[in-house]
């Protein structure tokens, strides 16, 4: 039982509800109704016949092309009675729906491909954002950390290149050891640790990195921690060499990661040819069903044309067939050719053949009959 009190429907509330309902009846003019009636169209397969042209236009199709397809099919299969004409018209609808399914599949492929291209453009923008111009980059190297591995390596490479320019100019800052610290956390090896140690050593030699310039303190630090001026030069050369080696290593890692991303993009583009999901599977099932329907409809039309040709283009379908006059031999030959195409037996059986007991068939022969194929040759 609900604890919420039910609202009492008074006459005032009922009148208010009726007045509100008059404001939500949708468009009232004929132009508004015509404009809004196609808002719920999704695939157009269940549209009423009188709305076919409007549905086609709503789906971006040309009704004139549909009419041209119907005229072409009518010309191909020739004139006939009302039943044959209806079968030809139904075949045109099946072909049109088949083309619509192909457009849907192409749309799914293009949408998946656009998603891959958007990821590529986003990655390129991020790579461009973390690629520094060494001549115009400030000494502060702190900025947000990206999450994509390829962009992380490009940012680290840019920072190391800026650091190389700073070390070449004998400029040491507090941000330089932090960059190496970030690298040391993700890379296993002695080089980042040694680089960080040397950067801290030269930072202390320069006065703690806070802008002081005391010549006596710098000499005292050189003598106590670096082995004098000669030792400082040796350590500086080691710092430059290790920094060059680290830059080369990061460049190689970045190149491998970028190549892996390009290969992944190629795989994703190939996968766009067969998108996964329920929608794609449904389209494939509908496509297979339409192919079967088209095949059956063509067989029906060819069989009806064969019967029409046997009667010389006239007569009722229910009336018994009459003997063909001598001048209708061409129609008989056409009927035989059509019977070969459609897979039907144009000949008639004799009374002895009709009363003869049925000979059991092998599974291979039964399968050939079902598929309307010629029986397989018996190998000796």
- Strand pairing plus helix content: what structural class? mainly alpha
Largest sheet: none
Helix amount, in percent? 55-70%
Number of helices: 14
**Kindly state the mean pLDDT as a whole number?**
75
Give the SSE string.
Answer: HHHHHHHHHHHHHH
Radius of gyration: 41 Å
Spans of at least 5 consecutive residues with low confidence: 314-328, 341-380
Coarse shape: elongated
Task: Give a concise summary.
This protein is mostly helical. It is 67% helix and 0% strand. The protein starts with 10 loop residues before the first helix and ends in a 10-residue tail after the last helix.
Fold blueprint:
Blueprint: H1 11-22, H2 30-36, H3 52-58, H4 63-77, H5 82-129, H6 149-168, H7 175-186, H8 190-205, H9 215-226, H10 228-271, H11 278-310, H12 329-342, H13 351-355, H14 363-370
Helix pairs in contact: 4-5, 5-11, 6-10, 7-8, 8-10, 9-10, 11-12
């Amino acid at each position: 039982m609900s604890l919420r009190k039910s609202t009492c429907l008074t006459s005032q509330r009922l009148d208010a509800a009726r007045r509100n309902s008059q404001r939500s009846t949708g468009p009232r003019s004929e132009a508004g109704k015509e404009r809004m009636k196609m808002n719920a169209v999704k695939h157009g397969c269940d549209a009423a016949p009188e709305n076919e042209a409007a549905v086609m236009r709503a789906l971006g199709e040309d009704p004139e092309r549909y009419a041209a397809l119907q005229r072409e099919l009518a010309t191909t299969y020739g004139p006939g009675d009302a039943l044959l004409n209806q079968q030809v018209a139904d075949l045109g609808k099946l072909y049109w729906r088949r083309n619509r399914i192909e457009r849907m599949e192409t749309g799914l492929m293009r949408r998946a491909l656009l998603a891959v291209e958007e990821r590529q453009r986003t990655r390129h923008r991020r790579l461009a954002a973390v690629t520094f111009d060494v001549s115009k980059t400030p000494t502060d190297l702190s900025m947000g950390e990206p999450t994509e591995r390829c962009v992380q390596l490009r940012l680290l490479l840019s920072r190391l290149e800026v650091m190389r320019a700073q070390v070449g100019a004998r400029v040491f800052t507090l941000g330089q050891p932090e960059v190496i610290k970030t690298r040391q956390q993700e890379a296993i090896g002695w080089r980042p640790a040694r680089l960080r140690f040397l950067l801290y050593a030269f930072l202390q030699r320069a006065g703690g990195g806070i802008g002081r310039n005391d010549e006596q303190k710098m000499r005292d630090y050189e003598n106590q921690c670096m082995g004098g001026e000669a030792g400082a030069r040796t350590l500086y050369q080691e710092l430059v060499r290790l920094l060059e080696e680290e830059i080369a290593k990061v460049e190689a890692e970045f190149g491998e990661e970028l190549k892996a991303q390009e290969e992944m993009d190629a795989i994703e583009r190939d996968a766009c040819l067969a998108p996964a999901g329920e929608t794609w599977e449904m389209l494939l099932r509908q496509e297979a069903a339409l192919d079967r329907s088209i095949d059956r409809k063509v067989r029906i039309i060819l069989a009806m044309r064969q019967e029409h040709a046997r009667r010389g283009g006239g007569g009722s379908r229910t009336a018994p067939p009459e003997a063909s006059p001598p001048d209708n031999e061409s129609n008989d030959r056409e009927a035989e050719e059509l019977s070969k195409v459609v897979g039907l037996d144009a000949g008639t059986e004799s009374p002895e053949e009709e009363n003869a007991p049925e000979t059991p068939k092998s599974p291979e022969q039964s399968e050939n009959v079902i598929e309307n194929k010629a029986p397989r040759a018996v190998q000796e």
